[in-house]
Structure formats: structure tokens, C-alpha cells
């Protein structure tokens, strides 16, 4: 039996095909793109959705025949933002833009048109792809009025799971992402590790995205990380998610906010983690709550409880004495209703294990994160970001061990582009990694040890704190991967 999500997408796709035939306008100008559950680029904004309405998964642009060709129009528009009409920075005229869905081995060609009054660019967060040329090159500037053509070729070995895309235009990453410029990418293939009874499991994108309000616009100036904000799921306030008693669903939890942390908790339930940062786990592990630092993602299984409702929450969380105190907030309501689903046994083992514990090390390095007393200037190894300076040179097809030390009184979200890493220890305690990661939280006055495997690609890329206010303030360094 097809999942309800799959049926919804098929029906929506048929309706959209009819609309395109009448209007002569598609999402990418008649290209190899399958658009599902929503409108294509340039269409009118959807009808506002009230708080508490059923969760809407974002529109999807899906590869076809090994290619995803699509257009992303970047513009400032007055659109629906969680049921309010506000000026926001949008992709394709939406605060919650399309999910890009691809298969391992695909090509993706994105035409990015900049209709803002400042330059921008695009980063495909977490994807193992070339950092050079017109691929995932964060040093590109797309100036106002310009169009840039990105081209990505993904290996067949790329890991399935949840990624995301966003502006990486230094030093405007924080205002552009906070203004609305972030969306989700899904690489198919995660379900193949599930039991056959769950291969058609209902899945939901659960994109965690917040906005602050200034007058009639989403705030992009003077962003205060700990300021009053509105936390949304897929751009909705406190939506309702339906599930049947005993039913498993796949939720793609993604923190695509600019700055804030989430400590996600589902009352009376446990998350069963099957991937972290789009890296499938070797064994499914359970958690009552998940701290999702800025930029991080988890793919989880959620099982419907007895008939009734419960809350998806973000719990109170502190990032340290110099950081921020985030309050407890309800994100969504999970409603268990309908016919009970027979139980399905989950496997003990999941995906093949990747382990760098015994790898030969080409180098050991230390990265020190620090900031000034005012918390306005940020450093890596005592230096602020300079795109014309190379801070670290590493050789392709080698493994390095990095100690990331935090000399500040607030947590930082450590992120490296191009390759995933294995988290080895936190504050001197060995860490039992179940998967690779591209983002890891560094405790205040603490340290983590990671091992990076520089695979396949050479070129200039970056490492940084993914609290984008910190990145824009200088906490970013240039990493060059050489032969």
C-alpha cells in the first residue's frame, strides 16, 4: 500500500501537470524537473495557513532521468510567513521554499537569479560535492540583477538523508538566512535500510526555522540571537501532524535557522535515530530529546502512541553564561487517530559502519574558537576570516585529527564543508559515534576531537561556526584541499 504522503504527492503532481499545460509555465522552464505538492518558480504565494493547521510538507522539485534542473529566484517579497503577511527574503516567492529531492549519482543544475539589492550565493550544506568552479563554491558573488548557473555532479556513493541549502554570502549569511533564505535537500535511499513493511513509510520534512519581526517585515538587521522569535515548522506555527496508533513515520528534523538551537522533545515518545547529518547510523539509537545545533539534522522514526494528542516541543536550553537562554516552546501537535497499525520489528543493525578510529593520520591540528568580551568579534586561531588567506592545507585522500577547542563562555556549532567527520571525543571522554557528521556542538570552555577524511575533491572551502552571527563576525577559516 502506498503511504498517504506518496499518494498526496502523486495527486498534486497530476494537478500541477494540468496547470502547467494550461499556463505554459513550469518550475524550471520545461526542464527535467518533477514538481510535486506545490507551485513552481514565479507562481503566486499560497493561501495563508493558520496556526494549528495540518502540517504541509514543502513543495518538492524532484530529479527525473538522473537530472534535476530548476530555477531559484531570490527576491524580497511580501509573503505569507506563518499566517502573516510580511516582507521576507524568498526563494521562488516563498518563505518555506522547495525541497530539492535527488538520487545518488544524479546531476543537479540550478539557475539562481538574484533580484535583491545585495549580492548573494548558494551553499548546499553537507553535500559531498566539489567546492570549486560553479559547484559548491562559497566564494562566488552573485550580484544584484545577475543570474548564476550552478552545476553539481553527485557520486553514486553519496550518503542518503537530509541536507539543506542556504545563502553563504559573507558577511551577510545571518541576515539572509534569518530573512528566509533556507530550504531542504533530500538524497533518496535511506528507506532501503528499513524492513520491507516500512519501505513506503509516510515521511515529513520537519524544517525548524525561526523569524523575528520588525514592523511588517522579517527582521534582517540587528539580529539578536536570544531575542524574541517565532519558531516554525515548515514555515507554520504549531501545526498538527496526524499519525495512526502504532504507525511509524520518518521525520526529517532539520535546523535551518540562522542562529538558534533546538532541544527537540516529543512528549511520551522517544526518537529512533536512523541518520545524523545525512549519514545513516550503523545501529538505530533512541533519544528522549535531541539537541540540534544550528545547521544540524536528524532523520528519525516516530511511532504513533495511543489515540490522543501530544506535543512536539523544543525544551529550555542554555548555550552558556555568555550565550543565550532559549525557552521551552511548543512546535507542533502530534495527533494519534484512526485504525491501529500492527507492530513492525526494527533491525538491530542498520547501515554499514564507517569508523576512522584506526586510520593512519596525516596530521593533527588544533582549532581554537574565541571571541572578544563584547561578543561582537569572533576568531579561529586568533584570526578573523579572510577569503584571500589559506588557513589550513590538507591533502586529498588522507585523514587528519582536529582538536576543536572553545575558549569562550558559550557553545559553538562547528561545521566543515565538503566532507563529513567522525566525532571521537567530547571534553576528553570517548564518544561512540554511530555515524559521520558535518556539524558538532562544542561545549563552552570545552573541546571536541574529530577525524576528517578528505575524499575525492580538491579546492578551497571553509570551516566555521554555524551560528551565522558568529560566522559573519569572523569565526570562519579557509581550508584548501590539495593533491
CATH topology of the largest domain: Immunoglobulin-like
Number of strands: 36
The low-confidence parts are: 1-47
Largest sheet: 6 strands, mixed
Which overall shape is indicated by the principal axes computed on the Cα atoms?
A: globular
Helical residues, percent: under 10%
Beta-strand portion reads 35-45%
- Cross-sheet strand order for the largest sheet: 1-2-5-10-9-7
Mean pLDDT rating: 91
How many domains would you count in the coordinates? 3
Rg over C-alpha atoms, rounded to the nearest angstrom: 21 Å
Structural class: mainly beta
CATH architecture label name of the largest domain: Sandwich
- Mind telling me the CATH superfamily name of the largest domain? Cupredoxins -  blue copper proteins
Oligomer: single chain
Write down the CATH class of the largest domain: Mainly Beta
